[in-house]
Amino acid sequence: FNTTCTVINGNGTVFGADEEITINCVSNVFTVGGLISGLEPGNEVILQNNLADDLQLSNNGPFTFNNSVLDGGDYNVAVISHPTSPNQSCHVDLGIGQINGLNVSNIGVVCSTLGYRVGGNLTGLSAGNEVTLLFNTGEQIVLNQNGSYLSPFTLLDESIFSVTVSSQPNNPNQICSITNSSGTISGTNVT
């Protein structure tokens, strides 16, 4: 452990009397921090070190917790509040360790926007027929039975979606239409 000591009244000459020499030792403290990336503009995440030292971040880049940690002491960084506009998930890399005579600056916090699926309910499709839906992302799904469906891919939270019929059923010929075919992803699957 790193400790700094100072001596008071450590110099002089002894002339037959007791002299008092004082030694004060203080354990060194070090900062804990790192780099956050992927946080969407306008979003906020709250990190915590050692279940007490909360740090609210609203920008990507370097960060340092407000409270220092004694040399030899543990640090344990966690996300206690994830960003919500758009919904994001943040995870901590290298967030657990012990101070070893140096500031900690290699903790990584990476945030990514959550994705959700778009779906609905298909009715009126004749047996043996199929309809192809086209999403504004360029992806297509082929449906061949009535009932609920969800896209196999996700769209990012707060992104705009639209769905059109790209290929109508033709065995027998049918015309399919879509209601509520566009909108904005709002923190949940669209069904």
Note down, in words, how this protein is organized:
By secondary structure, this protein is mainly beta. It has strands at about 5-10, 20-25, 30, 30-35, 45-50, 55, 60-65, 70, 75-80, 90-95, 95-100, 105-115, 115, 120, 130-135, 140-145, 145-150, 155, 160-165, 180-185. The protein is rod-shaped, with a radius of gyration of 30 Å. The protein starts with a strand and ends in a 7-residue tail after the last strand.
Q: How many helices?
A: 0
Given as residue ranges, the uncertain stretches (5+ residues, pLDDT < 50) are none
Portion in strands = over 45%
N-C termini distance: 58 Å
Biggest sheet, spatial arrangement of strands = 7-4-12-10
Question: Could you describe the largest sheet, including whether it forms a barrel?
Answer: 4 strands, mixed
Q: Which series of helices and strands comes N to C?
A: EEEEEEEEEEEEEEEEEEEE
Coarse structural class: mainly beta
Q: Which descriptor suits the 3D outline?
A: rod-shaped
Instruction: Let me know the average pLDDT.
Output: 94
Gyration radius from CA atoms, angstroms: 30 Å
Helical fraction? under 10%
The number of E-state strands comes to 20
